[in-house]
Amino acid sequence: MNTATYVPPTREQVDTIRRVLVHERDIERAAILLAAATCPSVKIPRLHAAEAATIRAQRPPAHHDLPAALLRITRAIDTETEGLYHHQDAGHPNATPALRAIAFRLLELGFTIAEHAGLHIHDIETAVALVYDLPGYGDEAPQHRKDHGISGK
Asked: Is 75:8 a contact under the CB 8 Å cutoff?
């Protein structure tokens, strides 16, 4: 299982998996359903494909339950950063590069999402790039600037 694509299961998915595990006592099927619910990219055996599709459908799209989607995003970020904060608070500076990398990734994703949402944030993106001396922004005229993937343009 690739943890890079892990998403926590919804309450409905957990209930389905619990039913299979506790009431039907089918450990293998429960494990397959857990993998299908938490790792969207994992390959599922053909025998269980229909049930895997059903459990994956139990996760509503973000626009159907925006507060839940935002909470999942917040929890994912907290999961990745909490240990780094503690490490940094304990006086270990080696957490700082990882925190900076996460911060830049979140900015990059935010710029891309904002662009798709119709928000015009190019000036903010450029300001961030200039403050952190990212290549392709400096003294170049705006029409000649290279995109370096900050906003996904």
From this structure: yes
CB atoms within 10 A of CB 124: 15
Write down the domain spans for the chain: 3-59, 63-144
Instruction: Check pLDDT > 50 for residue 141.
Output: no
Task: For residue range 103-122, list pLDDT tens digits in order.
Answer: 988 988 998 899 999 998 88
User: Cα 100 from chain centroid?
Assistant: 17
Q: Is the dihedral of CA 102, 104, 105, 111 positive or negative?
A: positive
Question: Which DSSP state fits 137?
Answer: T
Please check whether residue 48 is in contact with residue 29, taking contact to mean a CB–CB distance below 8 angstroms. Answer: yes
pTM over 0.85: no
- pLDDT greater than 50 at residue 32: yes
CA angle 125-129-134, nearest 5°?
145
| CA-wise closest residue to 134 among 104, 96, 114 | 104
* Share of residues in the chain with pLDDT > 90 (%): 32
Counting every residue written for the chain, the total comes to 153
Nearest-10 Cα torsion for 83, 81, 95, 135: 170
